[in-house]
Amino acid sequence: MSHSHSHSHASETTNLVPPTDAHSAYSDKDVEASMAYHTGRHEHGEENHQSGGDKLKAIIFGGLDGILTSFAIIAGGAGSGQTSTTILAIGASSVVADAMAMGVGEFLSTKAHNEWVLQERGREKWEVENYLEGEIEEMIDIFIEKGMSKEDASLFINIIAKYPEQFVDFMMTEELGLELPEDDHVWEAFKVRGEEEYVLGNVC
Predict the structure, then answer these.
(1) What pLDDT sits at residue 18?
(2) CA gap 84, 180 in Å, rounded
(3) Is the Cβ–Cβ distance between 98 and 146 less than 8 Å?
């Protein structure tokens, strides 16, 4: 009897321990684990969201380009009767050149995109500073189109509009569909694209 009680108590204690992260609870569709995790988050700190999802595009493009380019060059060298030393030298130089080209290309395109996003934010901020009422009305209309009642949308947007910087960022995502770049995003893009090109090119 006491053993059963002890086992039951241990199970209850285990259930109260938050899972490692919210994603494991979601993967298992475990509502109780999700609730336990979020309760623990409120007590101990911020929720840990997965990071790196924005790098997937650069990883996939860089990796595929590295593999296909290296394969094509090596196959061409072998088909033309080149020596193994020559083929390896050509392949190695191709991998390095491709890695630099893809990294620089990703750097420049990401930099240009980020500058455009920040320019759009500057415009939205100027509009908020000079015609806040008009921006509030625009956002209310957007959320009415999303299915909110006019009263709820008005209350919701007017509360956010009390905080100008947050309101501008909110408008960027909800009105323009743009995410603000992180400070080191450009260099990360260069590093990720170049590294994947180099690593997977060498694998080939």
Answers:
(1) 41
(2) 49
(3) no
